[in-house]
Amino acid sequence: MLLIVYCIFEDEFNFLRGLKVALLYKMKRNRCILFLLILCLVTCVNMVSANNDVLNEILSKKSILENEPDNKYILKEISFLYLHQANFDDALEYGNRLLRLGNKSGDDEYATLYAHIILGQAYLMTGEGGKAYSNLLKAEDIAQVHTNDSALCSVYNGLGLYYSNIEKDYYKSLDYFFKGIESAKRSDYTQLHNILLINISGIYYLKDDPVGLVYSLKAYEMGHQKSNPYLIFAASSNAAYMYFLLRDYDNALKYIKEAEFLMKRNDFYNQTNVYALYGNILLEQNNVDEAVDYFQKGMDLRDSAQTSSIVYNILGHAKAKLKQNEPDAAIEMLKEGLDITYSQNNSIHRDKLLEWLSIAYESKGEYNMALEWQRRFQNESDSLFNSDKERAMSDLRIKYDTEHNENLIKEAKLD
Fold it and tell me: Which position has the higher pLDDT, 297 or 5?
């Protein structure tokens, strides 16, 4: 599935293409624990698409800083350029410089606000959840005081991603995404609005709730209205996931084919995600051999994929091996996927891996092992259930707020 994190950049289509090489390097060095792509929408930096142009822009800004070390606008722009480059270490360095300047000058409205946004986004991408959360909350407080809705869009999206990826609290995540939609409406940012719709549909998929279809289809429609290839790609991917949940495999195949076409044409990032879903759809249609071909395509691209996409691809491939009466191969794959979830601190799909390990051992007649993996699956599921139970009262409030926001969207004819 596809979730998007954005800072405050515009020209996101060129950004994604220019970002790919930098992200590949970054993820090989330190694979991000978040199952998301970066999409930056800038209102403050006139972005350029080529990596060399970004580097030249950074050097130009640095030359200005030599004479004006306390230029808050340049510090902010350099920080965003480094985020654009997926150079999160340098983004953190300049974001902290901007923060120190804001604290020294008392400029909360600009320097401190954007410093916390920069630091929150950078820490989110480096997997430092606590620091990301702290900075995003501080940015939220300042943005609310100064009624900066464009900044709030970025903050709420970041907090939504924090709760979905780090805390695995999908109700809280949805609550923040809906808040982001309200901020986008107030600031009249239809592009940001569309991104949040895509993220909302992604969270509903993680909850195994096909109600997210309405949001992905609306985003898909808006993407075509804007003739925006990336938004169409993201929305069609999520629509395919929703139809997959509904077991409407013909429509799922229709949308994943469009996503694959746009992905290849524009060389979009994280192609394993698309091939994994494509393979799973074919598997449900009993096209096992063809499904395996797609899972293999996904595996061939794992070095440039997000952790959750790799795990999802492995899970589907293992299911295919079981259908081909190769339980040992399936078990090996499932254990590999499980190891990845622990080594990368990413629990997405872990419960399903445990469940299918039990199924695989049962298919071999090894019932003791099947029971052991079933017990581990149950413990994983119970852990999530108990966490929900402990938050029952707050979840009721969030569910109420979510329904209220959904009604607001309907009244605004968003769906």
Answer: 297
